[in-house]
Automatic annotation (TrEMBL), chain A:
InterPro entries, per database record: Dimeric_a/b-barrel (IPR011008), YCII (IPR005545)
Annotated protein name in UniProt: YCII-related domain-containing protein
PANTHER family in the record: BLL7171 PROTEIN, BLL7171 PROTEIN-RELATED
Lineage of the species this protein comes from: Bacteria, Bacillati, Actinomycetota, Actinomycetes, Pseudonocardiales
Family assignment from sequence similarity: Belongs to the YciI family.
Pfam families: YCII (PF03795)
Domain YCII-related: 1-103
Automatic annotation (TrEMBL), chain B:
Domain RNA polymerase sigma factor 70 region 4 type: residue ranges: 109-160
Identification of the protein by name: RNA polymerase ECF family sigma subunit
Organism: Pseudonocardia hierapolitana
Classification via PANTHER family: BLL6612 PROTEIN, BLL6612 PROTEIN-RELATED
Keywords: Sigma factor, Transcription, Transcription regulation
GO molecular-function terms, A-Z: DNA binding; sigma factor activity
Amino acid sequence: MRYLVSVIDDTSNPGSTDRQPAISAFNERLIAEGYWVFAGGLADTDAATVIDNRGEQAVFSDGPFVESKEYLAGVWVWEAPDLDVALELAAEASKVCDRKIEVRPFR
Amino acid sequence: MSDVEEAVTRAHHDEWARVVAALTRRFGDLDIAEEAAAEAFTTAVERWPADGVPPKPGAWLTTTATRRAIDRIRRENKRDDKHKEARMVYDNTPPEPLGAIDDDRLRLIFTCCHPALAMEARLALTLRMVGGLTVPEIARAFLVAESAMGQRITRAKAKIKSARIPYRVPAEEDLAARVSGVLAVLFLVFNEGYLATGPDTDPVRHDLTAEAIRLTRLIRALLPEDGEVAGLLALMLLTEARRTARVSASGELVPLGEQDRGAWDAALVAEGHRLVRERLAAAAAGMAPGRYQILAAINAVHTSARDVRDTDWSQVVALYDQLVRLDRSPIIALNRAIAVAELDGPEVALAAVDRLEDELAGYHAYQATRADLLRRLGRSGEARAAYDRAIELAGNTAETAYLTRRREQLR
């Protein structure tokens, strides 16, 4: 079962910066234990562009699709046998990143 | 009730969770398990009066439900049916590795109380899948529209499926943490029954307290070594023992100190005391008690006193001191202050209660406790204001009646 694991940043209650060494170590463990599929940090929401081409012509707009004080800072894709395993890893990930984590299965 | 009706009712009580659990394990689907179990009980109601009650009702129900489930899957006629059916009929898949305890019902309880589900979904799902209560019954218990309750249960089952919440007893190292979530669900059910909220309900919902006790007994049978399970069961029994003495004929709440102790259920008290003694022995052997065990011990002190004046208040305060160290909740500090009032007088207690104002000003028991202490200190004006506030906040009809009378008695 694959899970999208989102790292959620919060403008009013941000996590600590420079978690990189701890995150790298955690990633290596994920790889070694066979959970790691993909991971990546995201640029700031300022860098986002939303495209809507459902009408006559494509409309490009500046900024994220939803303005909120919480935003997506990065993602993992994990392969885990079930939700309990994913949740246990996610609890660890939240500590390592010092941020909130959302776990969602792929359909 | 005829013998057959009684047999069906008893089977529903004793076997529902077992049937649902066995089918969930076999088919891996809560929906199929629940519907097939319900159909099997309907069939029992139709057949048993004519055919007689089978010698092993549980086995009969499981077999009937299994057939119904297979029929249903056949009817649904999905393209992978053939394969699925073959697997079901021969079921030669290796059994899943067992958790700490192997019981289907225990797996079912842990699945229904999974931390990935919202608390209200856990409550509803546990009462439906493990307790066998119908959706209208659960809706009535929590004063929610039937359609909303049905949806809540459907959504919870859908999340179990889509998020792949495993149907399993957690591994030994996670067990204690997960059991505490299960106990929290059962305690919530019990408390809602014991001090029911809402203007249109009975002040005490015996259906809910009885169900909570029944499910806790089940957990106790499945996890006999768990001290907190024993503690919660003892706590519920000692509280339930006082149920009939707790509301007067005129529908007013009767506080502990004014209850007719002869009306307490002696058998429940004795059983609760036995469990508390068992836990005291364990504590003496070095096992630190958790909050339910300490709360049960406090209730054991209360129920040991033949008259309220015989209550060992220093023992009660000492137990609250122990509890405060485990749980810094202001509600525990409030209850401790109530015991302190009996030991050191209302003035000392009031000072302790007043310190909790920031956290508890909106809580009815805080205002009611303050009102009582102010009354005992002769500060009638302030007491009246506190009673007014408590009456405003109280959701339980019997409690409102009691507080109103107390307020009228002030000079």
